[in-house]
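Q: what sequence does this backbone want?
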């Protein structure tokens, strides 16, 4: 029946239940890698893009990324434009990016090769580069943190063909040897530089006090920027706002994922939870749904979230929405990952899908129970399981019954001792 389904579907209807067509995806991988693995030389336009690994830290692999194409290649490394893209199309773009890598000491930011990486990512637009490898590129990289990357090879030589134009704020903070990296990240964000671009600039050691600048592994830079910006929004802005007047419910279904957010009037608190179904990326052979999550009450957490980078990506998207509407709230954000979503593509997916979800008009209800009733009609996990696993939902339901929401100075305090 499997072969017949493929004939009927032809990569358009996803009759197999996957979030993407495995035949088309495999074809993309094979074609891209075959086309890129027969030469030791590449000339193309970097989106701009670089990759810094983490294995062997403080000595890590790092280098530029570029496809064998010139012109406007920005979409190849622009997560803010991927919300509606088919996964097959995303794989086609990402797996055509060739990584020329070299082992570098993370503190060696004065190295000429590192300076080349900095000049590549400081630009606003794609930059033409030439790379020569010691052997033909091979393989590909899949990760739950970074977007997929195509063939890689040791790089012998890189040449930047043109000097890219830079954002004024990027130029200034790159030259500022006194500004702390966290301050620079926030200032770039406030100047309108995209989050994905800030992550690259931080990764190549182009921000911070001169003596402390260093290469930051790409996955660490992604989380650091999400954390820094969302912390700024929460501590410097959101906690000074008044509360939401009603409970807001958001929902978004895409690529075999269901995202849900319940925003309740109250002082800022946040919880992110994921439910991985059997035959999904991180539960491929399991027989039951695995639910994990983390939360923070009133203040941003200091300890790294056990659930990983998606916690900070989801917190950033949620904080951006509350800042946009000028309110604070208790936010419970849920993700259900269904069978068929079985390919790691990076934490950008959470951040950008939630950003898109928060652009929609929310459903507004009066109580948490009403909100849970809405979620129950769409959730495959079931609201009982979510409540059992959620610290904040349990607190919200208990405090309502115990009248433990005490008005203090115009704010609704969440009784964390319940």
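A:
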């Amino acid at each position: 029946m499997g072969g017949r389904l493929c004939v009927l579907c032809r990569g358009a209807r996803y009759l197999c239940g996957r979030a993407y067509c495995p035949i088309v995806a495999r074809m993309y991988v094979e074609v891209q890698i075959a086309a890129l693995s027969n030469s030791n030389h590449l000339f193309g336009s970097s989106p701009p893009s670089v990759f810094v690994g983490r294995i062997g830290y403080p000595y890590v692999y790092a280098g530029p990324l570029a496809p064998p194409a010139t012109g406007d290649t920005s979409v190849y490394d622009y997560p803010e434009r991927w919300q509606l893209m088919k996964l097959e199309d995303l794989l086609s773009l990402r797996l055509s990016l060739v990584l020329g890598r070299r082992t570098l000491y993370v503190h060696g930011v004065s190295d000429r090769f590192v300076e080349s990486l900095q000049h590549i990512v400081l630009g606003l637009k794609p930059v033409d580069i030439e790379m020569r490898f010691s052997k033909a590129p091979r393989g590909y990289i899949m990760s739950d943190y970074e977007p997929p990357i195509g063939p890689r090879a040791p790089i012998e030589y890189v040449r930047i063909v043109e000097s890219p134009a830079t954002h004024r704020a990027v130029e200034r903070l790159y030259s500022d040897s006194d500004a702390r990296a966290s301050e620079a990240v926030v200032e770039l964000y406030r100047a309108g530089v995209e989050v994905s671009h800030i992550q690259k600039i931080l990764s190549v050691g182009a921000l911070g006090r001169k003596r402390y600048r260093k290469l930051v592994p790409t996955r660490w830079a992604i989380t650091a920027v999400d954390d820094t910006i969302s912390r700024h929004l929460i501590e410097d802005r959101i906690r000074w706002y008044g509360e939401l007047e009603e409970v807001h419910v958001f929902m978004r279904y895409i690529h075999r994922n269901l995202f849900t957010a319940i925003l309740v009037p109250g002082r800022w608190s946040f919880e992110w939870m994921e439910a991985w179904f059997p035959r999904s990326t991180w539960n491929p052979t399991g027989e039951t749904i695995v639910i994990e999550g983390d939360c923070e009450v009133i203040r941003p957490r200091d300890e790294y979230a056990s659930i990983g980078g998606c916690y900070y990506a989801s917190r950033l998207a949620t904080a951006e929405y509350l800042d946009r509407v000028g309110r604070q709230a208790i936010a419970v954000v849920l993700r259900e990952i269904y069978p068929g979503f079985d390919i790691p593509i990076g934490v950008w997916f959470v951040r950008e899908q939630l950003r898109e979800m928060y652009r929609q008009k929310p459903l507004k209800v009066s109580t948490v129970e009403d909100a849970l009733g809405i979620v129950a009609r769409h959730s495959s996990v079931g609201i009982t399981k979510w409540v059992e696993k959620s610290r904040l939902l349990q607190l919200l339901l208990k405090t309502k019954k115990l009248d433990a929401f005490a008005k203090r100075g115009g704010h609704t305090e969440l009784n964390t001792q319940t």
